[in-house]
Amino acid sequence: MLTRFALGLIWLVHGLPFGTIARIGRGIGWLGYRLALPRRNVVLTNLRLCFPELTEQQRIALARRHFSALGRSFLERGVLWYAAKERVMQFVRFEDIEHFDAVQGQPVVLLAPHFLGLDMGGVRVATAWKVASMYGKQKNAALDAAMRRGRERFGDPILFSRQDGIRPVMRALRDGVPFYYLPDMDLGLRESIFVPFFGVQTATVPALSRLAHVSRARVVPIVTRQLPDGEGYAAKFYPVWENFPTGDIEADTRRMNAFIEARVREMPEQYYWVHKRFKTRPPGEARFY
After folding, report:
1. pLDDT in tens, 87-115
2. Is the pLDDT of residue 181 over 90?
3. Listed residue (186, 156, 74) closest to 120, CA to CA
4. Assigned CATH for 2-270
5. Which of 118, 127, 229 has the alpha carbon at shortest distance from 184?
6. CA-CA distance, 224 to 270, in Å (whole number)?
7. What pLDDT, in 10s, does the model give residues 57-94?
8. In what order do the strands lie in the sheet with 233-237?
9. Can you give the residue ranges of every domain in the chain?
């Protein structure tokens, strides 16, 4: 019932001016900070681990800003899911697209970390190119259908489930379809190695190095940031990674985490802190959550 109400609200406001949607979304985030206590605790735990130099009050202020941005990103998905293509293109702009243009015609992995604008960047890329991406099925059927439909609206994208494995991704790359890759989720011990992220040993899937090696793909990071209310989002492309992969999977994965950490420090309130990024611990180490 709550999910259907939320989806109805997203649809109801999607045609409003961008600034109005943003302000309503921030109000939802304000409520979320006060009501979603388990997730607030996850966010504060993550911030204590990653920003020990901040005071507790500074981390609380950062958590409040995060929930505000999170609520806004939640409501603004209506633009992606229901608005005309022209409005979506106005809502999300590209920056430094020449870095992607430089590798056209080659296998390309678009490295897209979990910032709050992740879906905005993915849908915007799909308005311009045919792309492939990995999709995690949602537990709630109504939410799953809405998210999948929203991601498939433009450009006939190819969506794989994690259960499909790596082979269909390799086929897409060989066929010249860029892979929009979401690298930074804790998927458990079996699929991960431990490398530092903000100085914490973090279970990290090393698939980027393997993908680039087997497919000879170029890696072009793309980070989508939330702009001030009313201005939408900017999907920024970064220069192609040279000397990657190196043949050292751990070193390559460290490089990936270091890149993501640097971007997080630029806009810390916009990283996806509600995820239990440090849930999987090395053997014998106490849990954080």
Report:
1. 999 999 999 999 999 999 899 999 999 99
2. yes
3. 74
4. 3.40.1130
5. 118
6. 10
7. 999 999 999 999 999 999 999 999 999 999 999 999 99
8. 92-95, 233-237, 218-226, 108-111, 179-181, 132-135, 158-161
9. 2-270
φ, ψ dihedrals at 171, nearest 5°:
-65, -45
Separation of CA 22 from chain center: 19
Over residues 213-267, the pLDDT tens digits come to 999 999 999 999 999 999 999 999 999 999 999 999 999 999 999 999 999 999 9
